[in-house]
Amino acid sequence: MSALSALEQALENRWEALRARIAGKEPVELLDALRQECDAHAVVCSHDRVIVPNAYDVELAGSVHDELTRRGSGVGQVLTDSLARHAERKGYTWAGPLTVHITRGHDLPNGRYRVESHVMQHVSAEAFRTPPEAPPAEGRTALDEA
Question: Is 116 helix (H, G, I), strand (E, B) or coil?
Answer without folding.
Answer: strand
